[in-house]
Amino acid sequence: MELGIVMPLKAKAVAKDWSVTSENLKATVDSVLAQNSDAFHAVVVGHDCPAFFAEQSYQDSKCEFLPYSDFEPPKAGPDEPENQLKYEFDRCTKILRGIMHLKQKYPSITHWFSLDADDLVRNNFVEVLKKHEQFDAIILEKGYFYFKNTGIFHEENEFSAYCGSSSIISDRVFDLPSQVNEKSYRDTPFGNISHVHMRKRLHEGGWSISIPEERVIMYVRDNGENISNDAFRKTYYNQFKKLAKLILRYKFVGKDVKKSFGLT
Prior knowledge:
By secondary structure, the chain is of the alpha/beta class. 31% of the residues lie in helices and 18% in strands.
């Protein structure tokens, strides 16, 4: 197996706080670069390049930044569902552009992974996936949630229902289009199938699927840039209810696990 990892990055014009966006991405990239296997190539695709990529250690690393200019950053309007569609189009076309770039540069890549620019992978992520390389898809159902504001972790056994960083797809499952346009993002499973339905749809399509037992992925929440939870946290009552639920689901995570994801 040789893994292609694509991290779509929101534009500075869309970010709530570009410094927070850049900080979150750096943690994600660092977790990728900490792999104990070098059987991967990674790319961040975005309109704007975070400053840390100018550092020599990143210039010489296995993760590069690819400037994106196929479409302008999405402009938010009064219709929230429409805004969400714009954000998804932006994300999915960046994923496609990243796959096309890596495939041209490294034709030996066999599997693809779309990693959100604020999630973390464990330092044995690639090594674990290699044990499942004969499958058409690897679905990550066992992972961690990390609530950054409270420092609370919990184990999740239906990870793909919540997080898009949950599907590794073999190169043989799809063919790349010749160009990026308004509809071509649909040519990859990442742009055509919601992460919630990925496992079911690929199974129905006759593709072989494996689900690792190891927890090698971490969904980082409350990091200052998540889109979905702002309205929920508007009242103290809702904040209290949320914290109470987290405490009830809390799982102890040892120092070794935190360190393996780049957390100290």
